[in-house]
Specification:
Elements: E1 2-6, E2 9-14, H1 53-69, H2 82-85, E3 93-94, H3 99-109, E4 113-117, E5 123-128, H4 129-133, E6 136-139, E7 142-146, H5 151-154, E8 159-162, H6 168-178, E9 182-186, E10 192-197, H7 198-206
Parallel strand pairs: 3-4
Antiparallel strand pairs: 1-2, 1-8, 4-5, 6-7, 9-10
Length: 215
């Protein structure tokens, strides 16, 4: 289950399938998923059919070799939820913080983004290094030129948030489709519980045997 939070509070709650009905607020280009070997085109032919025969033959041999080495009783690893991989200690910034202070917070904690809270500690957005670099210049790690802006002026809002039991595969899909690097995790009351970043999902993938990339 996902929610979207903005300056006025929660503006949406629903499933992954209903998220596309809402406009995407990020300006980044969506990441295009790579087509798997053997996927069918719209005309019904396989992707390998368009490859030169030597390349196609080697690709088929590689797939067959991988399938042959898989044990017959291979089982999927456990299904992960947001609350199992999220970072519970979340560094946040205030919507009223000046951009220089927000930049220092990110640098001091060696993070690339942070959820933004209002005076009532409600989630209202997320601010990233990219957002801040639009209004300040950094030279050798030191802030030089700063426009008079608050975090609320440059943050991304509204922001998609997930519930603790959201499947991490769905969170990963939201990251890809909306071009974001992380998703806050909130409870039913909208209180911030944690944060799931790309690195959290990658860590879960590489440390969760057995991992099958083709089946």
């Amino acid at each position: 289950m996902f929610s979207i939070y903005g300056i006025s509070g929660p503006v949406f709650q629903g499933t992954l399938e209903t998220l596309p009905r809402l406009p995407v607020v990020t300006r980044r280009e969506p990441v295009r998923a790579a087509r798997r070997v053997g996927d069918r085109r719209e005309d019904g032919t396989e992707e390998l059919a368009s490859l030169p025969e030597p390349v196609a033959g080697h690709s088929r041999q590689a797939v067959e070799a991988y399938q042959a080495m898989l044990p017959e009783s291979l089982e999927r690893g456990p299904l992960y939820h947001a609350n199992q991989i999220m970072q519970p200690e979340v560094v946040t910034v205030s919507v009223d913080d000046d951009v220089a202070r927000a930049w220092k917070t990110l640098v001091d904690h060696q993070i690339h983004q942070a959820p933004v809270l209002d005076a009532g500690q409600r989630l209202v957005g997320i601010v990233s290094e990219r957002n801040l670099l639009m209004v300040l210049n950094v030279d050798n790690g030191e802030v030089r030129d700063v426009l008079r802006r608050r975090v609320g002026d440059v943050m991304t809002t509204p922001v998609v948030a997930a519930t603790p039991l959201t499947d991490i595969r769905r969170i990963a899909r939201v990251m890809l489709e909306r071009g974001v690097d992380g998703v806050p995790v909130v409870n039913d009351g909208g209180a911030l519980l944690g944060f799931v970043s790309r690195s959290d999902i990658l860590h879960a993938v590489v440390t969760d045997p057995p991992l099958s990339i083709w089946r």
